[in-house]
Design goal:
Helices cover 25% and strands 27% of the residues. The protein has 269 residues and is an alpha+beta fold. It has a domain of 176 residues: 4'-phosphopantetheinyl transferase domain (Ribosomal Protein L22, Chain A), CATH 3.90.470.20. A five-stranded mixed sheet has the order 4-5-1-11-12, with helices on one face. A three-stranded antiparallel sheet has the order 6-10-9. Strand 9 and strand 10 form a beta hairpin. Helix 1 crosses helix 3 and helix 4 packs antiparallel against helix 5. The longest helix is centred in the first third of the chain and has 22 residues. The termini are far apart. The chain binds coenzyme A (COA). The site of coenzyme A (COA) has 20 residues, from helix 3, strand 4 and helix 5.
Length: 269
């Protein structure tokens, strides 16, 4: 179910809008599959809309982890780091479907869920709606590196500028989530140079990391929804993403997406 080319580390992405899983079904699967901690979290939302988002996302996580690892949905043990990053606990004898390594990362926003899975290294994902209603995007720009703020300001206000902001934001979140740091990483301590349309031309990592270790992919899985993926990869690896759309009932035919290499940027430019 994962895509690989040559010596590439397999990478799978699942994009699932909430409306792909009927509310009654999401509730029923959650009752069967989620652990006590997840059920408690689901019960704490004030709004039904947020509870639904949580249930679809976490039912999807357990379904995909089961497809990938062979561990039944209700038996997967998911633990969190001190910064909140979830990990799958691997059985001592390895994963039932083979292999010992599996990393995953989840993002859910505005009725959309994105889950990335790799069998080697680390992955981080982020999905955001371009139309963020009252939340807007202006507030996040101050967190960017100076050269990124400059690039954003070069676009005319409105949709063009919002797209630039959201492209940078999703990439930064994806990288930070791959590293397990979440918002604990200062967003001006690393920066991206982006192609006009889509794609990362160059990357300057924080002082404690190397640009060569990372690959980035930008996606627009449905119009008005932007997503980014940060992947750790060896210098000699040529990963390919398999992008699945919809709830992961079975192994659907994915769309393959190439994972280009970004040039490293000098520490100061
Ligand atoms: C991770 C974080 C950036 C989420 O950003 P967001 O855009 O609001 O939300 P997303 O939907 O993209 O991602 C949320 C998911 O990321 C995952 N996640 C949570 N913390 C994470 C981390 N540190 N690294 C990677 N992934 C993380 C979870 O699966 C979470 O969903 P869940 O809680 O329903 O399981 C933000 O919540 C965060 O920074 N959390 C950590 C806070 C922190 O650093 N605390 C320090 C304690 S010392």
């Amino acid at each position: 179910m994962t895509a690989a080319v040559g010596n590439a580390a397999p990478v799978t992405l699942w994009f699932c809008p909430n409306d792909q899983l009927a509310p009654g079904l999401a509730n029923a699967l959650a009752a069967q599959w989620l652990d006590e901690q997840e059920k408690e979290s689901a019960g704490q939302f004030l709004f039904e809309r947020d509870r639904r988002q949580y249930l679809v996302a976490h039912v999807m996580v357990r379904r995909v982890l089961s497809l990938e690892s062979g561990i039944p949905e209700s038996e997967a043990v998911i633990w969190r780091s001190s910064r909140g990053r979830p990990f799958l606990q691997k059985p001592a004898g390895g994963l039932p479907r083979g292999g010992r390594e599996l990393d995953f990362n989840l993002s859910h926003a505005g009725g959309h869920n994105l889950l990335g899975v790799v069998r080697r290294h680390r992955i981080g994902v982020d999905v955001e709606r371009l139309d963020r209603g009252k939340q807007g995007l202006a507030g996040v720009v101050h967190a960017f590196a100076p050269e990124e703020r400059q690039w954003v300001a070069q676009a005319p206000p409105g949709r063009d500028r919002d797209v630039r902001v959201l492209r940078l934001w999703t990439l930064k979140e994806a990288y930070s989530k791959a590293r397990g740091l979440g918002l604990g990483l200062s967003f001006d301590s690393f920066s991206f140079q982006l192609d006009e349309d889509r794609g990362v031309r160059a990357f300057r990592p924080p002082d404690d990391d190397l640009a060569q270790r990372w690959r980035f992919v930008e996606l627009e899985p449905v119009p008005g929804v932007l997503a980014a993926v940060a992947l750790m990869a060896g210098e000699d690896e040529t990963p390919v993403l398999a992008l699945h759309h919809g709830f992961p009932w079975s192994r659907s035919s994915p769309r393959t997406v190439p994972v280009p290499r970004a040039a490293p940027l000098p520490r100061a430019f």
